[in-house]
Description:
Helix 2 (68-82) crosses helix 5 (167-181). With 222 residues, this protein is α+β, with helices and mostly antiparallel strands. Strand 7 (211-212) and strand 8 (219-220) form a beta hairpin. The protein has helices spanning 51-58, 68-82, 92-102, 122-126, 167-181, 198-204, and strands at 32-34, 40-42, 66-67, 89-90, 165-166, 188-189, 211-212, 219-220. It has one domain. It is globular.
Amino acid sequence: MFALALPATLPAATPKLPPDAPVCARPGTQPIFLSPMGEPFRGQPGQPYPSAAWFAGADKDHDGFVSHDEFVADALRFFETLDTNHDGKLTPDEVGRYEAVIAPETSIYSAHSDDFIYNRSRREQDRGAMADSRDYGGPMGAGRYAWLNVPEPVAAADADVDRVITRDEFATAAASTFNRLDVLNRNKLRLSDLPRTPQQIAIEGPCRTPKKRKGRDQEWFG
Length: 222
């Protein structure tokens, strides 16, 4: 009897994605990262995710980590760019300019919302920063492009809810945000230890392919 000849290599089995894997981002989607205090960084399709650009800028001593002090200093640098009249506080007009002009992604219903949908798997939740009680049931506003699901991080710094954000309030909010991200309690952050943003996961995969809309010959992205 002759043995059947087997192919030298067998095709690799396609890994089964979990049912809550994100839908892939629309081809050509612009990578967007909103820093922990809300500063937008926009990349280009095919380039590294722009969280690396924020991290490199905040890491002033170039040691590969962002310390607590570096984190707060970077937040205050951003505060100064928002404080257009340099009076040490952000008024409703300045916050409105941030939301409408600087970071329109903070709108829950922004034009970018159909680029992807994202349901966090348990594995991603367990990575740390995005899993907390303020999850809103899913990423919203800036939370779609950030490590923490805070829909509007600048307005969230208004601790006394008087619609004016002082420099001290912004610094205090930055310190609190740093502590939420420092899940390893090292008093410093390393980029590789931080979770991917929902958009980053949808861009980089693995993810599900878009579905066809019912009755329409077009893709569904959320």
